[in-house]
Each structure stands twice: as structure tokens, then as C-alpha cells.
Amino acid sequence: MQEVTSTKLPPGPKPFPIIGNLLELVGHKPQKSLAKLANTHGPLMTLKLGQKTTIVISSADLAKEVLQQHDQFFCNRTIPELVVVGNEHEFNLPWLPVSAQWRNLRRICKSHLFAYQILDANQNLRRKKVQELLANIHNGSLNGDAVDIGKAAFKTSLNLLSNTISSVDLADPNSATGRELSKFVHSILEVGSCPNLADYFLVLKKVDPQGIQSQMTTYYGKMIDLFGNIISQRLLQRKTFGFIRNNDMLDTLLNINEENTGEIDKTQIEPSATLEWAITELLYNPEVLSKAKAELKQIIGKGNAVVGSDIDRLPYLQARVKETFRLITPSGSAIASPDASIWENPNSFKPERFMGSEIDVKGRNFELILFGAGRRMCLGLSLALRMLRLMLGSLIHTFDWKVEGGFKPKDIYFD
Ligand code: HEM
Asked: Which parts of the sequence bind heme (predicted)?
């Protein structure tokens, strides 16, 4: 979606006074509402969200035109109010306009943090966390406990990221601080993903009717304290005689800072939601689950641990992850919903559609742009893919899964 100011606009549903088309998007499945509206008004559509005029693109061809050919006009993001309250837009890479500062940060991230050699070098940090996840699930299974895959995925994703970044567990259920931190990150994600009325009605900016801005101000303060403490501790450790540098991102950034060239960026926790979907879909598609298990058994061998370098030899697992990406709808994606003109049986879960296919998620195929495309494309793509494939491959390979509580596919699927 892109906010606009022009008067010559594409078609769209008739807006109500003041609220515009906001009611059309109320509910748990805005992606479905958008797909329905696009069926009526076309792949280029105007929506009035309160006072904001927004253009929605719902076709791969148009997404390509906007994100590839006219990228220079669309590459700056609309800044939400909750970002403004923390002044995030002044220093945080995703909110910076395309500028020398943004280019410099992106270059540092690409060459020093997310480069293949770097991610290879710190893969042990992630492997250790996945082993812990497997051990926890194993212990739980001995007592017959059900696994809350959403919680487990969230905790492991957070720890995988925090270990890759700074070699610490941010979500440690055995410590009061860990539990508090986990709750705190949850709250940030919850508040951050809640539609903020102040974004749609200028007059509400100062009123903050949902309390979103004030909550975020508190969270930003806590976050800065938290990262500040981690950085101070590391700076002290680095001065200690005999200190061995980690391969984590914090050391890399501090090394760059010593040379006076870098800044620290924040991160996203999206892989946890993707993993939860991936496992849920598998449980409702036993055939896919057994094919994925068979591939892992054949390539990795029973009882052996999955490691990052195995993933290239697991085409079915890769196809599975792409199929999950196709089904979940990201914020920021140009595609409103699984589209019947692009995908055969768009709502059925069929990793086979990607077997032998050249389509990937790296911004070249506009029917699958979960990570965006063009110059603002996701920087954490390689890390996110590695985390997701490693967790998913390990979980499928190590355990036999079944659903607790008698839920049916219709309870969770799109329609
Ligand atoms: C499944 C996991 C993830 C998904 C689906 C995802 C998706 C996205 C999307 C859609 C964008 C906007 C792209 C655009 O505007 O064209 C984005 C931007 C970004 N992502 Fe991710 N992301 C994920 C994980 C991560 C991780 C793990 C990190 C870092 C540790 C990260 C860092 C970033 C950054 C820094 C940007 C802003 C880039 C810029 O504005 O130049 N992402 N991501």
C-alpha cells in the first residue's frame, strides 16, 4: 500500500464521510477483504483510510512495475505515529528515507552482518539454540505434554536472533529477567501491529486514544536500556585480558565502530510467526509431513542432527517453506491474497508446485514477495531463511507430530 496526495486516482469503493473505507478492512482477515475489493475494483485500487488516501496493488505485474521500474518514487515508507514518538525514523534503517545515511547502514548490514560468510561463521550460535528447543520438546514429550508451537517458535526465534546478534538469550524461561523480556517483546509486537487511529485521523495525533504512543514510548525506553546494558557489558568484557571475541554481530559492529564507521540496527521477529504457520499447515497435511520426513531421513539419516549446510540438499523442505510464504500474507506485501490467476488451487497447501520451479523469495518473482523487492527489500532475508529452515527441518526430522485438542483445518485456514 502507498499513501498518495494526487487527485487523479484509480477506482475504489465509495468512501463514507470521515472514516472513508476503514470499515471494509475491519476484522481478522484484512487480506481477504482486500482480495474481495480488488476483484470488484481491479488490481490498482484507491482506498480512503480515514484521512489517508491509499493505493493498493494486487497483481504481480503491477507490483513489478511499481517496485522495479518506478522504485525511486515509492522507496520511502510512510512513517507511523508510533515510530515518530520514539524518534525511530531519525536513526532506524527501515524508516530512514533513501539517503547517504540509509545507504551506509545498508552497506554495513549487507557486508558485515548478513553476508553469507558471516552467517556461516556464526551458525553454531543458532545450532545450539535449536538443540535446546529439541531437548525441551523431547523432555515435554516424555511427560506427554502438548507443545505450544507458537510460544516455542517465538522463544526460539528470539533467542536465535539475540544469539546471532549478541550471544545472549533474550527469552530465558528459567530467569525472571528472561520471562520479563519475552513478555516485553511480545507486548511491543502486539502494540506495534495494532492499527493506530492516530495514523488515520490527524486530529487524534495528540490525543492518542488507544494509548499506543504512550505505551511505545515506555517500550522504546526499556529497549534502549536493554541494548545499552548489553553493549556496555560487552565493551567491558572486550577490555578484559584474555577475552576471546565472539563471531556475533555485536562484536562485528563494535569492531566497525572502533574504526568509526557504523551504527547498530534493530531487528525483527517475523520468523516465529512463519514457523508457527509452517508447522500448523504440516499437521493438517499429513501427506506433506510424511514426504518432508522421508526426504530428511534419506538425506540426513535417522538420528543425525540437521545442520545449515544440509538445506541445499533438501528441495522438498525448501519448497515447503516457499509454500508457507505463499500462503501467509505479510504486512507490506503488494499482493493482497493467494491469487487464483497466478496459483492453481491457491488455497490448498501444495509444496509440489515449487519443485523444479525457479520461483524464489529474493525479490525477482513478484508473485512471491514476502520479503519485499527493490532497493528497500528485507535485509534479514538470508538470516530469516536459515533460521526458519533449520528450525523446521530439525522439528520435522526429530519428532512425530499430531494435533492436540481436535482442531480442524477450517478453524485456522483462510476461508
Ligand atoms: C520471515 C522473516 C521476515 C520477513 C517475512 C521479513 C519481511 C520484510 C519486508 C516485507 C520488508 C519490507 C521490504 C520492502 O519494503 O520492499 C522488510 C524490511 C526489512 N527487514 Fe525483514 N523480514 C523478515 C526477517 C528479518 C530479519 C530476521 C531481519 C534482521 C535481523 C530483518 C531486517 C529487515 C530490515 C533492516 C528491513 C528494512 C530494509 C530497508 O528499509 O532498507 N528482517 N522485511
From this structure: 378
What are the residue boundaries of the structural domains of the chain, listed by start? Answer: 2-95, 271-412
Question: Ligand 1: which atom is nearest the Cα of residue 106?
Answer: 41
Burial 31-68 (b: 16+ CB within 10 A, else e): bbbbbebbeebebbbbbbbbebbbbbbbbbebbbebbe
Residue nearest to ligand 1 atom 18, measured at CA: 378
Question: Splitting the chain (415 residues) into consecutive groups of 10 residues, what average pLDDT does each group show?
Answer: 68 95 83 87 94 91 91 90 84 91 90 87 87 90 86 86 84 74 81 89 91 88 83 88 82 78 45 71 80 93 86 91 75 47 81 91 89 92 91 92 67 49
Question: Of all atoms in ligand 1, which is nearest to the CA of residue 109?
Answer: 35
Query: Does the beta carbon of 166 sit less than 6 angstroms from any atom of ligand 1?
Result: no
Ligand 1 centre from 377 Cα, in Å?
7
Q: Give me the CATH code for the 271-412 domain, please.
A: 1.10.630.10
Annotated binding site for heme: 378
**Separation of alpha carbons 351 and 339, rounded Å:** 16
Q: What is the pTM of this model?
A: 0.86
